[in-house]
Amino acid sequence: MRPFDSGHEDLIHDVAYDFYGRHVASCSSDQHIKVFTLEKETGDWQLSDSWRGHDSSIVALDWASPEYGRIIASASYDKTVRLWEENPDEKECVGRRWTKLCTLNDSKGSLYDVKFAPAHLGLRLACIGNDGVLRLYDALEPSDLRSWTLTSEINVLPVAPASHLQSDFCLSWCPSRFSTEKLAVCVLDQALIYQREKDNMLHVVAKLEGHTGLIRSVSWAPCIGRWYQLIATGCKDGKVRIFKVTEKAGSVTNSSLQDDESNSDTTTQEHTHKSFTSSHSPLQVELLSEHDDHKGEVWSVSWNLTGTILSSAGDDGKVRLWRSTYSNEFKCMSVISAHQPQFHGAQQPPKP
């Protein structure tokens, strides 16, 4: 653990590594985005650039796949998503190295999360905020990254919560290129799986049950070498949960979940989750394990690139690393403190 001074003047809400792990971006209530570069020789993180990105707190960041260039998406309480592109010809630390490509301002409420889709789905991103609407955008012309089109609007919540201070929203894409397009969307204490169906629209096909508090974080694991999917959640009820998701052979999505009222390019969908039953789902969802080791609220969960190790962070100020045993049971293998690393047994922790 090598801490470094971020230079932010207020609470940091999110940090995100690029694909190669050589750059990290951070965002804060000080309305600034900062990008740091890892110095190979010293192992230190050096500030590459810092700029004011929004007119309110910036709460989420994500990097696009490197095949589309060096692009960052940011989401803010000012109700906008903004996309930024690096200009390597500009000097570092002058505030001009990252230029704004465009601003997406369709949200009616504060935004909480933004995520780029896996590269095989094209240059696509999803965002969600406290207006209860999941929005998907596509860059239809990869040669013109300043032009993005709103392709889907899905009403996840019938009624938006009154206060964003008492709510939470997060999402995670299914990274598998061998599976139909899916993403997990968490709103308040609900965790829903959406899947793109034959009508080219996203429909709820499964739920992740058992949460008794606001869901703070969700992460869909890469499935290298596995025939099933894993999804982890971190919850205000103090538990880390890991779900196993498998596709039922020959299953068809319940027609009651499909809504063909709109045939426009941008489709608004409303779903009545109360009528959803798992027997009609094309997916089988099983709770593999749940853990309360943090002894308090769990704020973040994240898988490594191979989907074999899960990291979680909570109110105890520690990062815990989880790995599956041969019996498919997840165990805490390492506990990392910001002050003094502590390892279970003689095994050293793997690089996350």
UniProtKB/TrEMBL annotation:
The record's subcellular locations are:
Endomembrane system; Nucleus, Nuclear pore complex
**What does the UniProt keyword field contain?**
mRNA transport, Nuclear pore complex, Nucleus, Protein transport, Repeat, Translocation, Transport, WD repeat
GO molecular function terms here?
Answer: structural molecule activity
What InterPro entries does this protein map onto? Sec13/Seh1_fam, WD40/YVTN_repeat-like_dom_sf, WD40_repeat_dom_sf, WD40_rpt
Q: Which GO terms describe its biological process?
A: cellular response to amino acid starvation; mRNA transport; positive regulation of TORC1 signaling; protein transport
The record's principal subcellular location, in a coarse class, is: membrane
Instruction: Name the Pfam families on file.
Output: WD40 (PF00400)
Q: Where are the WD repeats?
A: 51-85, 291-322
Its Gene Ontology cellular component terms are: nuclear pore outer ring; Seh1-associated complex
For the region Disordered, what residue ranges are annotated? 253-281
**What's the family?**
Belongs to the WD repeat SEC13 family.
User: What is the protein name given in its UniProt record?
Assistant: ZYBA0S03-04874g1_1
Q: Which organism is it from?
A: Zygosaccharomyces bailii (strain CLIB 213 / ATCC 58445 / CBS 680 / BCRC 21525 / NBRC 1098 / NCYC 1416 / NRRL Y-2227)
Its taxonomic path starts at:
Eukaryota, Fungi, Dikarya, Ascomycota, Saccharomycotina
